[in-house]
Amino acid sequence: MSSLGIDFMLIIGLETSGFVGSIALRRDGQLLEERLLGQAGRRHAQSLVLELRELLHTHGATSRDVQAIAVSKGPGSFTGLRVGLVCAKTFAYATGCRFVAVDTFAAIAENCPCNVTDVWVVENAQRGDFFVGRYAIDNAIPTSISSWRLMAPVQIVSADEWLANRAASDTITGPGLTDHAGAISPARLLTDEVIAKPRASSIARLGEQRLLSDATPSIDSGLENDTDFWKAVPFYFRPSAAEEQQAKRSGVASA
């Protein structure tokens, strides 16, 4: 029995960090369905709400039946992450269900085959850079999310320099491989989209594990705000191009 007083829940998974988003529904610890989102559904909260309503209706449920919503928090697309977080927060506020933001890279690591215990996850950070995170299975130390542990903070690195320093023993996956796979032949690459792309089903599964766990993240873990829809924020390092342009214009105006 969890700290919520329930063993299972009806939970929505929401993934909008990449070019193609997805939504998923789990009940009693089992995946009911996962659907891909069109470009409009990923970028516009109104379309996303309609997609969620249709998914619930297909399985005989309404928004009031949902006990939790899990959403991908990044790294990823600036616009996509914002739309996903806003939708999930609004849904949780309107229905009173639980909310949890999930590390997108951890969800990708969760897709890996069972024989993989250490993996680099990469995403395109634009301007010739990667978002890079290394994750490893840690069975010795229980965690409230999954057995995958982030080994060091996610960083922005030069894609070419980082790829040049990979060893043949490295295992690499993630959406960032799309345009660079040919440059990493010595490494073990997991390029299949089922593994390399974040999926709403994995987001829902990790969110469920987090919410059903009795463990409470420490303040210095960086996870304490992930279950508070007032405090949860998207995880990205840079402002959007529009914000950068606005900052430049403001700088010129104030000069």
Can you give a write-up of this model?
It is a single chain. This protein is of the alpha/beta class and 255 residues long. It folds into two domains: 10-105 and 196-254, Nucleotidyltransferase, domain 5, CATH 3.30.420.40; 112-195, ATPase, nucleotide binding domain (Nucleotidyltransferase, domain 5, 2-Layer Sandwich), CATH 3.30.420.40. It contains eight helices and eleven strands. It has helices at residues 39-43, 45-58, 78-95, 104-110, 159-164, 193-196, 200-212, 241-254, and strands spanning 10-15, 22-27, 30-36, 68-72, 98-102, 118-124, 129-137, 148-150, 155-158, 171-173, 188-190. The strands form two sheets. Strands 6, 7, 8, 9, 10 and 11 form a six-stranded mixed beta sheet that branches. A five-stranded mixed beta sheet has the order 3-2-1-4-5, sandwiched between helices.
Task: Please supply descriptive tags for the structure shown above.
255 residues; alpha/beta; Nucleotidyltransferase, domain 5; 2 domains; five-stranded mixed beta sheet; 32% helix; 23% strand; globular
